[in-house]
Amino acid sequence: MRETEIVIIGGGPSGIVAAIEAAGAGVKVTLLDENEKPGGQIFRQFEQGFKTTDSKHLGDDYQKGQNLLRQFDSLNDKIEYFNNTTVWGIFPNYTLAFARNGRTSNIGFKKLLIANGAYDRPVPFPGWTLPGILTAGGAQKLVKSERVFPGEKILLAGTGPLQLVLAHQILKAGGKIAAILEAGDFNSNWFQGLKGIWGNWDYLREGLKYWRSIKKAGIPFLRNHIILEAQGNGEVEEAVFAEIDKNWRPKQQTIRKIKVDTICIGYGLVPSTELSNLAECNHSYDQGLGGFFPVRDAHFKTSVPGIYAVGDGAGVAGSKVAIEEGRIAGISIASALGYMSD
Question: How many Å apart are CA 63 and CA 55, to the nearest integer?
């Protein structure tokens, strides 16, 4: 059986940074990633055969990701990276099982770091299984890494900042958006919203940039609106939507239809707790963090000895928080293994 000092599950921002910190201190690291290349959703790299002629068009996130990935690659003699890998077993004797290229293998570890991210919150409605309906994260993957539009006339429906990010990315690539349905209403709770962004000027600048591109394109942005139904013969042809009251009940007199061929649903993210549950870690619930998440201490240790959890899979808080959690966990693990003093 293969042996290593630390196994990291997940090649997103938190997993990459944890690997950089631990390997930089001399720890033998094995990183298991379900994707073809490291980077996760936020720092997703191009698929095979694609390249960019001007990386400035891809935004600040791309540049930050490239810097981290260069650091990651520079430590390839200390980091063993397995792509296209699915972890299916975590056992009490400090071993786990994973599948890769049709084969199952076991690996023993001293420390385990779970950094497997989050997934789009599923919100069912009549017609939601029609071809042409996909999550915001799925649409973002098509646009960012495969340079493919999810459709020709797109409706975005949901709530939260990912709506603005996705709209900006589609517009910048030359796509067309029919409308954006935002279930929330910032105007009715502007003070709470202001407290959330105060001091986070980078986020505010990014948000204003996205908002300007949407306004410039003349896209209808309808607050307090949700999708009710998708209609079509074998594929999406129309969307039924309406304004809602404070209890999210549709106002019957506001029900309308719009002709679209694609609907992107984005009602936020949910922590991926499958592996932390598999490891029998204790969990708690916080609606603000996306739902259930593994309980952790200040160094991101879970309730199970030797197992840590970081990033959106341990509570959705965004890539900047994920990076710092990965950094702290990587350093803490290196210290726990005796590679640096407290």
Answer: 8
Calculate helix-pair angle for 190-197, 201-216, nearest 10 degrees.
Answer: 120
User: Could you tell me the residue range of the domain that residue 218 belongs to?
Assistant: 122-266
Output the domain CATH number for residue 321: 3.50.50.60
Instruction: Specify the pTM.
Output: 0.86
Domain boundary among 239, 266, 293: 266
**Phi, psi values for residue 270, rounded to 5°:** -125, 130
Distance of CA 230 to the CA centre of its chain: 25
Give residue 44's pLDDT band: very low, low, confident or very high (50, 70, 90).
low
Q: Are residues 323 and 310 in the same domain?
A: yes
What does the pLDDT look like over 85-107, one tens digit per residue?
Answer: 999 999 999 999 999 999 999 99
Domain count, the chain: 2
Q: In the prediction, which pLDDT does 292 show?
A: 96
Helix 13-24 and helix 59-74: axis angle, to 10°? 30
Residue 258, SS3 per DSSP: strand
Q: Are 339 and 28 in contact (CB under 8 A)?
A: no
